[in-house]
Amino acid sequence: MAETTKAQPQDRTDVAHPQPTRGGVQFAPRVDIYETEKELTLYADVPGVRPEDVELRYEKGELVLHGRVRPRNPGKKFLLQEYEVGDFYRAFSIHESIDASRIGAECKNGLLTVHLPKVEAVRPRQIPVKGE
């Protein structure tokens, strides 16, 4: 298994501001990645993103996440509006030990969960030792 590392927390004010890497308002979602013997599981916070507005691609060892937040109640007069409309974008380099044909994902209540199963050959396995 991979060594566990804890990412240095970003200043919350930095995350709340759009990232200038693409056109329009864009945010980098906060993620957690968990590893078991069978898979990596990625959890990404994407508030306001509907499952049909998530684009998830795996290509040449890179997992690309793009989610779009569409305007809610367009044309309405808001008394207070803090929630911005924009895109979530992150890209991850994924080791070749992931079985790309079995990657799966679900998005529910603003949480995107991506399952990245490992190929059988890299999974740890117990080897029985026989005696005389």
Q: Could you characterize the architecture of this molecule?
A:
A hairpin with a 2-residue loop joins β4 (54-59) and β5. This protein has a domain at 23-72 and 83-122: Sandwich (Immunoglobulin-like), CATH 2.60.40.790. The chain has one helix at residues 12-16, and strands spanning 26-27, 31-35, 39-45, 54-59, 62-68, 87-93, 104-108, 111-117. Helices cover 4% and strands 35% of the residues. It is built from one helix and eight strands; from the N terminus they run αββββββββ. The strands form two sheets. Strands 1-6-5-4 form a four-stranded mixed β-sheet, with no helix packed on it. A four-stranded antiparallel β-sheet has the order 2-3-8-7, with no helix packed on it. By secondary structure, it is mainly beta.
Question: How are the SSEs placed, and which strands pair?
Answer:
Elements: H1 12-16, E1 26-27, E2 31-35, E3 39-45, E4 54-59, E5 62-68, E6 87-93, E7 104-108, E8 111-117
Parallel strand pairs: 1-6
Antiparallel strand pairs: 2-3, 3-8, 4-5, 5-6, 7-8
